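Q: Please design a sequence for this.
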């Protein structure tokens, strides 16, 4: 099970950290990731991290403003977002996979999402 939290309404330029609790079978995942979906748009990849080694990969357009990390001991995944913009407004989802990839189809489990709203 994956449970996201930390999303809220913020203003342009603010920072926000999202958290995902990784429990149950998802604790055996090889990789975890964040995806997001803005209103009227497709869900898109944000960042991914391997659970054991901590290797990371980012969406090119976001890599200067977001940092993905995890605490393997507490089974928690994080997404630190800085310099937020209105176009970052979306529902942010936590995903887990027994493999590795950058596409949603590479992931086996996902949470319900947490809403981030950025206003100017």
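A: Design:
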């Amino acid at each position: 099970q994956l449970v996201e939290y930390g999303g809220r309404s913020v203003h342009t330029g603010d920072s926000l950290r999202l958290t995902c609790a990784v429990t149950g079978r998802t604790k055996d995942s090889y990789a975890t990731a964040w995806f997001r979906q803005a209103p009227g748009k497709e869900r898109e990849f944000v960042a991914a991290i391997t659970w054991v080694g901590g290797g990371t990969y980012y969406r090119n357009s976001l890599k200067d403003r977001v940092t993905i990390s995890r605490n393997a001991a507490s089974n928690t995944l994080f997404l630190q977002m800085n310099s937020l913009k209105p176009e970052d407004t979306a529902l942010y989802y936590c995903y887990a996979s027994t493999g590795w990839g950058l596409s949603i189809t590479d992931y086996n489990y996902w949470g319900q999402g947490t809403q981030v709203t950025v206003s100017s």
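Q: Thanks. Anything notable?
A: The longest strand covers residues 90-97. The mean pLDDT is 93.
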